[in-house]
Amino acid sequence: MPAAIELPALLSQSLVAYTIELDNEFEHLMPHRTTHSMPGSAAGDPWLVSMVMWCNCMRFLRPEGLSVGELEGLARTSTNLAGMQRWGYLVVERPRSEEGVRTAASELRVRPTAMGRQAQFTWRPLQEMIEHRWRERFGGETVDRLRSCLAAVAAKIELELPDCLPILRHGWVTTIADRNGRASRSRSELGLSALLSRALLAFALPFDRRAGLSIAISANLVRVLGSDFIRVRDVHRLAGLATEATRNALGYLDKLACVEFKTDVSAGRGHLVRLSEKGLKAQNTYQRLSAGIEMRWREGFGTEVVDELRETLERLVIPVGSSRPPLFGGLEPYPDGWRAAARIERLPHYPVVLHRGGFPDGS
Prior knowledge:
three-stranded antiparallel β-sheet
């Protein structure tokens, strides 16, 4: 039988909360632009992006530049280079070559702009800062237990995984580059977000290989829908996702005949949605496959490790009484932050990291 809350959901909500807390701090410290920019934002300020764009790109850039191939080798995943250039963080250049010789994409040179270097300076201490806050908020023993369990899982993962979640592909599928060997970096050196990301990837990759729908769509959209119609405009709130990302995912589910829509004037502006018979089967697959992968984790990583990991995560994720989940203690944005306009009610059950800037809720 599936547990009250799936293990990847516990991992996901912890990583999403960590990311939002770090993103709020970066937004507060770094000059930037958004559609919600406050007076005083300069036209040359970079467009705001999320922590993933630091982890998969900016942390590796050097003033003298490096090739795209080198960047992807260091990050062990790709990034949105076109976006990061358009948003003002980096420049992509062609190396000097003989006339008429075509430059391979992997040989293009990437270097940070002046604002990109400022962003690097701003990002660099934030992960240590957020982990320190977690120790103060949840207790050092809890964070140490969480790190210990995650490191034990990471030590037995044979794949060479990145230190962050990759940008999702079409259908919100999680993929990684096919690389030989294992990362040489010690698990004890990994930050908390990297450990959470690697554990999530170890869960998501086998799920997406076996299931007809990705874990990102299954855990978020398919999970909150059912056999009864609900208002389309409520789905994003139930899933903890951005409106546009939810709309796109519902369109994808519609093309696969996993959902059914109908118009009902009593619903206000619009439409109602529910799972089709095919969608209900996908929901069952999500529950069954999540439970099965967790069982295999117990066999591969050890029952004690998985039990301790689950118990520690539940302390952070599950509310006590009528209070909000402990993780929400660090999610209050600054008054001028773009998230200040809407109070966070729920966190995704799998991060939706898209090309639009890598925000964990698909924003």
